[in-house]
Fold this protein.
Amino acid sequence: MRSEGKVPAIIYGHGADALAIVVDARELQHALSTEAGLNALLTLEMGKDRHLALARELQRHPTRGILLHVDFQIVRRDEEVVSEVPVVLVGESLEVHRAGGLIEQQLFALSVKAVPDRIPRAIEADVSAMAIGDSIRVGDVVVPEGVSLEADADVVLVVAQPPVVAVASEAPEGAAETPEGASAPGVEAASTSSGPSGGEGGGSHAGERS
């Protein structure tokens, strides 16, 4: 089927048994390339039946990038669904940049709840007003009307970290020379921040948006 430009898929939802189907790869790729991205509301035609659905899980070839399998969830236009939406940093923090600090993104996606037509393409976090030590939390971001965030309001999205510096002290007069290959005494790395550290996959940017 894949050699013929088809993608095997599963469709489920609203109490219906999961059903194996096949979709056209080119048409699906085109449908998922709109501004809505992976949260595009799709219409699947199956004989005389038509279903509104969202693409919930896409499996791609690890090197070629082609679609291997898709899971579709049947939805209604008037029902709220939970979807993953990427977090995008906007703006540039001049104050952090001038201080040599880093804008570190802690989370790259958030779960939102909304009817399919209102699912945003991305959640924006404006870093332009940040200074060293500032953070942006889930409760600080603005979402469109009809959209709610599933994460706790205190969860940190972005933090402005101070620069990393090395502090060296002079060796006392008469102190023995440091053997070749050994570390010099009195040299240590200063703490990067008293704020939260980046989790797995975190990104750091020198005062700029990602």
Remarks:
- The chain has a mean pLDDT of 82.
- The first helix runs from residue 25 to 31.
